[in-house]
């Protein structure tokens, strides 16, 4: 048996308003809740049992995946009443593991779309006798990640989470959010308090002389933490840039789910997803975008690299580029929305009604009925 712990307790703040009432790992990506792709890949790699470490909107995970039998997995859920941080969450979930002290346990962040070879990572860990193996990626801008320099043998030399100054950026290798721990190492993380695996556990393991290995590969990898990454990941799955056993249709330029209505003259491209009940009107153009269930794109609107929330409506002739429209929001005809704009759930934007403010406007949880307020916000992607 191979067991795993999945970290899914984060609030997904950078993806608001999409994550105001759906946790980030459950947002539909390429037609299914994002985690479905990751779980299917884990099952294909021989993982049999996964403990979910949940906190924010915890009950929604069990509602979606149940006991896991649909995916050929055994799933368990642990809930943190107050978030314990990544390390605290791992320690808490460790209580439910059945692996023996010397066995490898996979631990992964719940917001990563990755083509990493999980079986090879686990087998390499076992063969090396390491305490922990970290999957690493090379990225152009490592500032939003954990820096992980290694020596010629792949031994991790340091771990620096979210470097602040240019002097701190000594490598382009980052923590890819997927680890193999020897079970007994997990048992040594302090219980019952907030712990950051990145800021506390990894640096302490290095200081104590533990064998911490880093494995760099060229596989597909994306952290779906921002709206831009979210639409990119969905489009890449639809176009087959990264394989997923959970893709609910053939690889292609667009994925139109059953019960969606696309006018024959509309043009869909770039890995667009049109979810159940969504409507795309005459002459509309939708490129590299995610239209959630019941979204409506009116005639001749043009939507690029954007997310349109559930039951939201984009009026005739609107032009959207890199925009997030919250659930049930309405954008009146003729609006041209600038990149980075987010429209709150339930907001109504009248014709030529873009008004910007400094911070994103959150959705009211579930109650997406606040109407008539033309509030929009600009926020960096
Ligand atoms: N259960 C639980 N409790 N889960 C948590 C908690 C918590 O208190 N805090 C965060 N998580 C989960 C999130 O849901 C996510 O799946 C994962 O832990 C990582 O949290 P993020 O908030 O997404 O962190 P990040 O993206 O800024 O940085 C992390 O990932 C990078 C790779 O994408 C770090 O691990 C970096 O070192 C890494 O480079
Ligand atoms: Mg993340």
TrEMBL record:
Checking SUPFAM superfamilies in the record gives: Nucleotide-diphospho-sugar transferases, Trimeric LpxA-like enzymes
Where does the record place the Mannose-1-phosphate guanyltransferase C-terminal domain? Answer: 252-333
Superkingdom: Bacteria
Q: Which residues form the Nucleotidyl transferase domain?
A: 4-237
Q: Where are the transmembrane segments?
A: none
Signal peptide residue numbers = none
The record's section on Gene3D superfamilies has:
Hexapeptide repeat proteins (2.160.10.10), Spore Coat Polysaccharide Biosynthesis Protein SpsA, Chain A (3.90.550.10)
Q: Name one Pfam family in it.
A: NTP_transferase
The UniProt entry's sequence similarity note says: Belongs to the transferase hexapeptide repeat family.
Instruction: List the protein's name.
Output: NDP-sugar synthase
């Amino acid at each position: 048996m191979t067991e795993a712990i999945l970290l899914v307790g984060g609030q997904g703040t950078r993806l608001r308003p999409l994550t105001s009432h759906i946790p980030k790992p459950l947002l539909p990506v390429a037609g299914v809740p994002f985690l479905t792709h990751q779980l299917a890949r884990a099952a294909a790699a021989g993982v049999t049992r996964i403990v979910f470490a949940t906190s924010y909107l915890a009950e929604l995970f069990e509602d979606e995946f149940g006991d896991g039998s649909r995916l050929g997995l055994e799933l368990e859920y642990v809930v943190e009443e107050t978030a314990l941080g990544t390390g605290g969450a791992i320690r808490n979930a460790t209580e439910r593991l059945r692996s023996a002290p010397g066995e490898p346990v996979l631990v992964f962040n719940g917001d990563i779309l990755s083509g990493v070879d999980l079986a090879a990572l686990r087998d390499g860990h076992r063969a090396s006798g390491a305490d922990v193996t970290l999957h690493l990626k090379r990225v152009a801008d490592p500032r939003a990640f954990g820096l992980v320099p290694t020596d010629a043998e792949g031994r991790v030399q340091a771990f620096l989470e979210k470097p602040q100054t240019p002097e701190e950026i000594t490598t382009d290798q980052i923590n890819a959010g997927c680890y193999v721990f020897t079970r007994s190492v997990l048992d040594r993380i302090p219980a019952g308090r907030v712990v950051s695996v990145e800021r506390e556990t990894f640096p302490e393991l290095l200081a104590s002389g533990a064998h911490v290995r880093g494995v760099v590969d060229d596989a597909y990898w994306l952290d779906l933490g921002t709206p831009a990454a979210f639409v990119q990941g969905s489009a890449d799955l639809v176009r087959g840039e990264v394989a997923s056993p959970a893709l609910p249709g053939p690889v292609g330029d667009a994925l139109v789910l059953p019960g969606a209505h696309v006018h024959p003259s509309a043009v869909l491209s770039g890995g667009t997803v049109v979810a159940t009940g969504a409507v795309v009107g005459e002459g509309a153009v939708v490129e590299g975008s995610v239209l959630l269930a019941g979204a409506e794109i009116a005639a001749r609107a043009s939507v690029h690299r954007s997310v349109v929330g559930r039951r939201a409506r984009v009026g005739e002739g609107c032009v959207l580029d890199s925009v997030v429209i919250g659930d049930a929001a309405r954008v009146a005809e003729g609006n041209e929305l600038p990149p980075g704009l987010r429209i709150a759930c339930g907001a109504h934007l009248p014709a030529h009604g873009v008004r910007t403010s400094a911070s994103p406007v959150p959705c009211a949880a579930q109650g997406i009925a606040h109407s008539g307020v033309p509030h929009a916000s600009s926020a960096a992607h």
